[in-house]
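EI: anyone free to look at a 112-residue chain?
SC: sure, send it
EI:
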Amino acid sequence: MIKTVMVKKINIHQKNSLGKNYYSSGQLLHKGNYHNRKQHGLWESYYYNGQLLSKGHYRNGKRHGYWECYYGSGQLSRKGNFCYGQKQGLWKYYHEDGELEKQEFYCEATHE
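SC: here you go
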C-alpha cells in the first residue's frame, strides 16, 4: 500500500543551507545541503518508518558520485555512480535476500 504524505520543506530559500524535508508525521524524509539553492553534497532519504532508503551525493542539483539504495528491510538493493544525473560505470542490483540479481554497465554521461 502506498501512503500519501505531506512534505514540509525548510531552508530552501537560503542560498547555502542544510535542508530537511519531513513526512506529515514529523518523521524525517530527506536531509542534505543546498549550495546556491541546489542540492549539493551528501543527501540521505528515509522510508516512512525511519529506515534509510538511499544515500548519495549531488552536485549543482544533480546526482553525482556514489549512491546506494536500500530495501525497507535495510538490505542493499542497488549501488553505483552517477555523473551529472546519469548512471555511469558499473551498477549492481541485489535481491532482498542480498543475492546479486544483475550488473549493468553505463558508459555514456553528459558532463556540464
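EI: Residues 8-106 form a domain with the Outer Surface Protein A; domain 3 fold (CATH 3.90.930.1).
SC: 👍
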